[in-house]
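Forwarding the complex inputs:
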Amino acid sequence: MGIRLHVWGERACFTRPELKVERVSYDVITPSAARGILEAIHWKPAIRWHVDRIHVLRPIRFQSFRRNEVGAKISARNAASAMERGTTQGLGLAVDENRQQRATLALIDVAYVIEAHFTLTDRAGPEDSAAKHISMFNRRAEQGQCFHRPCLGTREFAADFALVPEGGALPVCELASDKRDQDFGWMLHDIDFDHGNTSRFYRAMMRDGVIDVNACLAEGSAR
Amino acid sequence: MSTPVTNRYEFVLFFDVTNGNPNGDPDAGNMPRLDPETNQGLVSDVALKRKVRNYVALASGNRIYMTEGSTLNLHHDEAWKAVMPEVTKADEKKKLPKEEAKARALTQWMCANFWDIRTFGAVMSTGVNAGQVRGPVQFSFARSVEPILPLEVSITRMAATTEADAEAKGGRTMGRKHIVPYGLYRAHGYVSAPLASHPSKGTGFSEDDLELLWQALDQMFDHDRSAARGEMATRKLILFRHDSALGNARAQSLFDRVSVERIYQGQPYVIGSEGTGNLPPARHWSDYRVSIDRADLPQGVEIIER
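Prediction (whole assembly, two chains):
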């Protein structure tokens, strides 16, 4: 059973893994990010979302900005020893000493329709039926409910969403007629969590404003 | 600590700047950030979060992980010793060696001890993969209501840094400051309750923490005075409180209820409408009017003005 979700936002950054220090976004949302948006609305270990099609509704445009960021991660080892000592002294991170200025080349003014379905996983119990999960998702999406606020790639770019009801018309695609067929090259499809978190890539082709993820995957993928 | 937050919130924050630089752009020689397409001013999410953290460190006994400058005072540690003297080696023995349990204990301890990790989340992954914590509170970029005009102001200093400079320039050097004469900024934010209260994913972000967040948003600029910032102030904070954790209405429909008009000689004008370009530039909060549409409010949503 499939769902269609209209998502949009002022900015988005679907970071290319090869350009992630100074982040550069892909031209369009990745199936992985789209799955994350669906999971922000409804997800249980019993189900897994599969993104089937992505409709690109707005012209692809970029904007750059640079921010002061922190170049360090919280050290789990320090945290463990602090737990042992029972004090948080010296555990803080002085941001001024770990400064990195990083640019982000983000997308602006994006809108997509995500078409997806889910399958039940082996963690599904007897009480998990497809109908139950689909109606939970639809109810939440319709009412604007979410487990946490979905985002367009990174959390500072919050996503607005609306359910495209079954049989309802899709939002208008504003892509210029000569921009509707594009080859985006190799893009991240998703992370394969069953096989040591390896990345899977696929050749993303847009035909008439629509990326048919399954058709692209059928033509080949790479790890 | 009080109970974790179980209501979803959205909030709209209005703040303004007078003759200051609310957020410099490192890419543009520290000029105020601008949206190059609309000339509206921007303030990044991280700039706002920094101020919230600074305020919380200043105003409460909570510890902040991402500190600015020197780490917090030592006497806070006294409090911690008093609050949790049990976390010692005895516990360490009891702890399962299993990595996942260990990781979770670590993350929860960090959440319990640091306000900013509880609120905004953190990435904790060196050695043991404690994964990352997503906090319930999320900010987006703030944007000025109307286009802004950044000014570059040249200033002189009656002293030089080096002797060579002193000789060459007669003991004087020039510098520059960037200011925005006036700008009213609007920021949107979200509080996702399940990330606070979920039994395994929740950070334990509590009602007290939430109250402190609202207080921080209200007063953070009052404790962030500097030569660069000019006069900044929170002007209005509007909260949308949902009855449930998942929410009772679409976020965007709630944000749309808050609108801003330009006021000139008592007359309201729709921003960006024909003719507003001929108005003298806004220079004060009173040149704007914020209104909230309270009609037909979705059930289970409450508007709180602070």
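Chain B touches chain A through 71 residues (CB under 8 Å).
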